[in-house]
């Protein structure tokens, strides 16, 4: 028997492996099975080249779990090893200065494995002892057994082993006894080794017989050796892609379509990416792309490896140029990974462009599901925006689809304002904003439907990209002011009438939680609506963005909703209310208004007298008079407002017009709606 020490410069390699790889301890199985696959593929290559002339036989890799002895055995019938090869590949761990190594990588468990050729040593994360039983394929080779208990000491002895290949036996330690469980090992094999190119078996398949589960003679193969992405696209059908998708995501709906990646220059990249249907929360859709290296599972956390917006896609990416066992931070700085990321973006854009050009009708039918991917990409990736603007679509409220260029040409004649800006009108809810949409259409305008999860952000982005253009929500102003032209109607109300009407309508606006109403007058056509409710574009957009964006926008989310109660001063019903008000309470209101005006004149004189003086230089009598005048003004204003409010409360037409405006905005509910119905019956 040969004994010796593993070639490391310090005794603490095993504590490092156990301590700092513990969070990733599952991957020991992936590493050992991958080594078994490598050994088997090497033998296949030697046989193909004629350097191995023996019978290959059954090369299935077999995993056995002894739950009583707490052992796991990984067996292959690959090239095997001689004692000299064990000494070279196992005993001489290829790094020195373990203390420096520990300090550098202690925060990054995955960086230790693979980066230093430590794949086999991941076995010690879960084992108190590891044995290697191996027989080389070479003629006349002697079988040997290597044993190590997790210290630098090891032993090698000759053994009797008839079959070519290697058995790795792990004696699971007490801290990791959950791995001495066949079901757990089968779960890990299906997670990490599902698509490895050599058959992997764990035990035998079972069947129900006479009310109990019994083993059959058939191997329980856990992997698919020729997954779909390794096959030639021309030989595959749409059903093959759907079947594979549902094997990856059993509960998912059918995908929209797929992109089969097959690149061999300037790097190797294969895979299949699927566009899934996304219902609401885009965050829960992430981490669905599985990353493989030569069919070995690496991760499903692919941010930094694929572009941010493509993390919404599902599917598989496989590349030998992506390091198998390094950290995310390393991946994000790796030049090959950056090239792959850029290529995937180009490939996705090219495929979308191809579908758009060749199957536009089908593309339009899928647009409502597809647009979240494209908008996300255009928002987060400048190169993708440049490519996507050829096939990105805008949908109007009539369900018609247009490219950016097509839509610009359709609206430019009617929807250019007096400042030569092109105005894109849009609605976010076709039902709630129906009356505003119809009012805009009646003026010959077209209205886009922007009701997607990202549309508020996308609108802002397009405003920055489009030349001399802005987006205006259709309910943000009265129809005449959505796209301001040179011509203007004259408002047919006096200042006194405006003052009266302001209080009449203000006093009857509803008390809606977190909402303010500001009465405003517009000189609209006498056939337009008498009262409308609009919401200022900037503030509403900021509030919408706060709901999806967070960060600085959260400030706007906490602010109350501000609405304009727009009164059409030229409508005959408004004229009637103004005339009736004048008849009933006009004299009293004007008398109070005159008194307020006189007092405001005196207030201005007193304030002017204070100018340029220090506080102590102003006579006390003057200060007291100013306070008294301000108090009188406040009291008189309240009296005037009370007179007008009392009149408004009795005037059913004022409340009716306000409620009609609320109803048009889907803001009249509950008790208020019931009162409106009753009042309508009374007025009829």
TrEMBL record:
ATP binds at residues 31, 35, 76, 81, 96-97, 166, 328. GO terms for molecular function: ATP binding; ATP hydrolysis activity; ATP-dependent protein folding chaperone; unfolded protein binding. CDD domains: HATPase_Hsp90-like (cd16927). PROSITE patterns: HSP90. Residues 606-625 are annotated as: Disordered. The keyword Lipoprotein does not apply. Keywords: ATP-binding, Chaperone, Cytoplasm, Nucleotide-binding, Stress response. Belongs to the heat shock protein 90 family. PANTHER family: HEAT SHOCK PROTEIN 90 FAMILY MEMBER. This is Chaperone protein HtpG.
